[in-house]
Amino acid sequence: MSENKRKRRIVSYLVTGVLLALVGGVMGALKWANRPLLDEPIPPQVLPNPNAADYYKRALELQVDAELIGRSVTTPGPGDPPLPTAAELDAALARNGAALAELRKGLAFPCVFPCERSFSAKFPDYAHSEQLARLLRAEALARAAREDWSGAMDSSLDGLQFGLSVAHGANLLGDLVAIACQAIARRDAWDYADHLSAASCRRAAARLSDLMTHQVPLREVLVQEKWMLLGSVVKVLDEPHWAEHFVGGVSPAKSAADKARMALRGRRAVVHELQAGYAWAIGLAERTYGESLVAPRPRFGTPTDELLPVLAKAAHRHYFGEAENGLLLVTLTLRAFKLEHGAHPDRLDRLVPEYLPRIPRDPYAASGPLSYRRDAAKYVLWSIGPDAHDDGGKAIDNPGEAGSKRRLVQFESKGDIVAGVNP
Predict the structure, then answer these.
(1) Which end of the chain is more exposed for a tag (fewer CB within 10 A), N or C?
(2) First CA to last CA across the chain, in angstroms?
């Protein structure tokens, strides 16, 4: 082979190598640019079969007299229509017999409401769930009016079971609705407990104790919320003007400069920050509530930084529901103990194991159960509340408010959540 031919072949090899490298680089860059936005695929929603949600939907379709039922469980204000009479309420409940029966059929099955992962989703199932909770509370009130205290407690516990079931597979909105349904069911249960026999208290406590084992942990709620939000965000990011949706949180962009800055950050930065923010919040849910209050919050960027305070307040509502259920459970067993022993116990651990397998934990505390103090013939039972500070059973009080708002428990409240005092 001549020297010239050898040189031409070497040049040919070099050119081919350079071209292959360029093509490989371009293909690699395209693959990198087109890689999935999410670190892991969004799992499909798994619906049980049979699904209690289907029974609840049918119960809503069968329900009648919703306005009258709503009035029966609401304290009327100035100018509002009066409460229905006992006869009117009994008649309305009789007309709702089919709805109540369908609702109770659903309580026997697991529940997951189908959830569209989109910002445009309306969530009608969650929106109407409180309507069924009010129906069960109206039934409880009617039974209490006839001094059927055991029946009234049964209706209240059905309401609690309904509320707890709604939370399964739910995102943050679903969990908040579930908590509201449970609050509706608990509203009068404290009064019913004061009229129950020891046997009825034991039976109600055993049922409530079992129901509480099915409470959805906050971590699971946040995982579902993460998938809900990321699924919605990915759809928005496919739109040509996606940056407008993320300037100032979920509000539209206020200026062209804001939009430009968001666009420069890029779609992947938004998704990465959201994933990192939710990973941090989910990890925090595995720690104690008190630890979560003092944990330093990293900076992730818009809109993640604006979502995290919302998640913190939602965590408080979740723990509030758990604390109230635990307080009601212990209240039932304390009454049974007093009826059978003539006095309340000097310590809560006297209830174990005869009345309870264990004392419910205080979800606001770093560790340990709910708190208790016997005062002569009475007692004080409490959770340390959202400030994570034990005030010795001093109930949360809002002196500037009237009615039920006076004792309302909020994220910023100071003081303790006292059984039968703070709704």
Answers:
(1) N
(2) 97
pLDDT confidence of residue 28: 40
Instruction: Output the six-digit token pair for 3.
Output: 């020297």
pLDDT digits (tens, 9 = 90+) for 43-84: 999 999 999 999 999 999 999 999 999 999 998 888 889 999
**Backbone φ, ψ for residue 371 (5° rounding):** -100, 155
Give the pair of three-digit tokens for residue 266. Answer: 């890029």
Q: How long a stretch of residues is the chain?
A: 423
Q: What is the CA radius of gyration of the chain?
A: 28
Give kind and range of the element (H or E) at residue 417: strand 417-418
pLDDT digits (tens, 9 = 90+) for 19-32: 545 544 444 433 44
Report whether the peptide linkage leading into residue 303 is cis, meaning its omega lies within 30 degrees of zero. Answer: yes
The per-residue pLDDT for range 313-354, each reduced to its tens digit, is 999 999 999 999 999 999 999 999 999 999 999 999 999 999
- CA–CA separation, 342 and 351 (whole Å): 14
Q: Give pLDDT, residue 4.
A: 64
| Alpha carbon separation from 106 to 101, 259, 378 (Å, rounded) | 9, 48, 39
Cα–chain-centroid distance for residue 104? 22
Q: Is the pTM of this model over 0.85?
A: yes
CB 112 within 8 A of CB 55: no
Distance of CA 248 to the CA centre of its chain: 25
Torsion sign across C-alpha atoms 421, 321, 157, 205 = negative
Q: CA distances (Å), 114 to each of 166, 175, 184, 228, in order?
A: 11, 14, 24, 12
Euclidean distance between CA atoms 39 and 230, whole angstroms: 11
